[in-house]
Specification:
Elements (H helix, E strand, L loop, with lengths): L3 E2 L4 E3 L19 H10 L5 H4 L6 H15 L2 E3 L5 E10 L2 E13 L8 E2 L6 H14 L1 E2 L3 E5 L5 H9 L6 E4 L5 E7 L2 H11 L4 E5 L1 H16 L11 E8 L6 E3 L2 E4 L6 H7 L3 E6 L3 H9 L6 E5 L4 E6 L3 H7 L11 H13 L11 E4 L2 H10 L4 E5 L4 H8 L11 E3 L9 E2 L7
Parallel strand pairs: 6-11, 8-12
Antiparallel strand pairs: 1-5, 2-3, 4-5, 4-10, 5-12, 7-21, 8-11, 9-10, 13-20, 14-18, 14-19, 15-17, 16-17, 16-19
Helix pairs in contact: 3-4, 4-7
């Protein structure tokens, strides 16, 4: 069902300097301050390719790649390979590792039921990444996928590879340690292809990149005389089994402007939720959420007051919820928050990031933004399980934007894939 192929990656050489000065977070996680820091880290930092400061960023990025290849700062591998990539990180004092496969994955429109999205996308980011593909003809950053592997065949495969000598070891700016191994042996390549062949895959991160790649593939095919082996029919992806214990999903908390916990608002919330008054601090809010996992619980903070909300499980409330969410799938907290709290109680229309809504990964940062006045109220949520996202996505359920936060992101700059018309896989 899914065709994965090895590819000859383009990677940094020792001429570029220490790897930790070259790698970056994904382009859509880089703000202006971080962009400046990356530029200062190295004249060869990967930010100069994925998110150049210069006005004509596509042309500049293309010129840089060609120059770096010419200078030997980057080089193409001599053999096609799969890459096993592991991230080791710490959350709440717990050390965790996540291991996945970097491979060229055949592109499919969603209607083929091979690759499934789980979040909505927007036109502007897709246009940007499509222009980057047209100009550079390179996959600069992987799309993050997951697949079901109940027999854990891929996990056993990756564990065996991880006993060999790694090709890359480095630590990123967030303290995540990255290790990459190469798989070039034909029998091992066939084994991994066979493991994944019958598996549908779900996009975790990179929906815009993936959809742009499908559009680019269609443009290239429209020129005629194409073959199925040409690299533009594929996209570089990082693929992780759902059963991988390190497949962590963090919550994405919502922050709004111009709203507070007025008595009227609290009374309206009581129609749908059981309400508990909390101490107005991060510890109390996080403790409430942790104590009510799976109960459609929310923490609310407006700088002065804090409340804990739990969805009422009476028929009138559930009937309203099921008007907007399929009964065949799980009722997601972010959907309840959007459809009941934002639309029904607050009567909010369209939400636009940075205009009237903000998103934060960590509860302490969400609370801090309310305290600083950047937002007036925050709604804290529990994370969604990766297995639940995978189950729902293959049923064609699409969640609101920023519903999931798979952590950590695979850094950019470890490997790049050439998708020029002359490149075959």
């Amino acid at each position: 069902m899914v065709d994965i192929r090895p590819f000859k990656a383009i990677t940094y050489t020792s001429k570029a300097g220490p790897t930790e000065n070259l790698i970056t977070q994904p382009y859509d996680k880089i703000d202006a301050a971080t962009q400046k820091q990356y530029y200062e880290a190295s004249p060869y930092n990967y930010c100069r390719l994925i998110l150049p400061m210069e006005a004509d960023k596509y042309t500049v990025a293309n010129q840089r790649i060609n120059q770096w290849l010419h200078e030997g700062v980057m080089a193409r591998e001599s053999q096609p390979a799969f890459y096993i990539a592991r991230q080791e990180f710490t959350i709440n004092g717990q050390k965790i590792s996540r291991t996945g496969i970097i491979a060229a994955v055949e592109l499919h429109p969603y209607s083929d039921n091979v690759v499934f999205p789980h979040e909505q996308t927007f036109s502007a980011p897709k246009a940007d990444r499509l222009n980057m593909l047209r100009t550079l003809q390179k996959d600069l950053e992987p799309v993050f996928l997951m697949f079901q592997d109940p027999e854990e065949k891929s996990i056993k495969f990756m564990a065996e590879v991880a006993e060999t000598q790694p090709a890359i070891q480095t630590t990123d700016s967030l303290g995540v340690h990255h290790t990459v191994w190469k798989v070039t042996e034909p029998s091992k390549i066939k084994e991994l292809r066979d493991i994944l062949a019958p598996k549908p895959v779900v996009i975790n991160d990179g929906h815009h990149r993936y959809e742009s790649a499908v559009l680019y593939r269609d443009e290239m095919r429209s020129k005629g005389n194409w073959t199925a082996d040409q690299a533009f029919n594929y996209h570089m992806c990082y693929i992780v089994p759902v059963q991988e214990k390190g497949l962590v999903v963090l919550p994405t908390h919502r922050l709004l402007k111009q709203y507070t916990l007025t008595p009227q608002l609290v009374e309206e919330l009581k129609c749908y939720f059981e309400i508990t008054e909390l101490s107005p601090n991060v510890a109390a809010l996080e403790a409430f959420l942790a104590g009510h996992v799976g109960e459609h619980a929310f923490g609310v903070y407006d700088g002065k007051k804090a409340l804990g909300l739990i969805l009422k499980h009476d028929s009138s409330v559930l009937q309203y919820v099921f008007q907007t969410v399929s009964k065949e799938t799980k009722v997601f907290d972010v959907v309840i928050l959007r459809d009941i709290v934002f639309k029904q109680v607050l009567k909010i229309g369209k939400l636009t990031i940075d205009d009237n809504i903000l998103y934060e990964r960590w509860a302490k940062d969400a609370v801090a933004k309310v305290d600083s006045g950047e937002a007036s109220i925050t709604f804290l949520v529990n994370p969604i399980k990766a297995s639940t996202v995978a189950e729902v996505a293959v049923q064609h359920e699409v969640l609101p934007e920023k519903s999931t936060d798979f952590y950590p992101k695979l850094v950019s700059g470890l490997v790049m894939m050439d998708i020029a018309p002359s490149e075959a896989l």
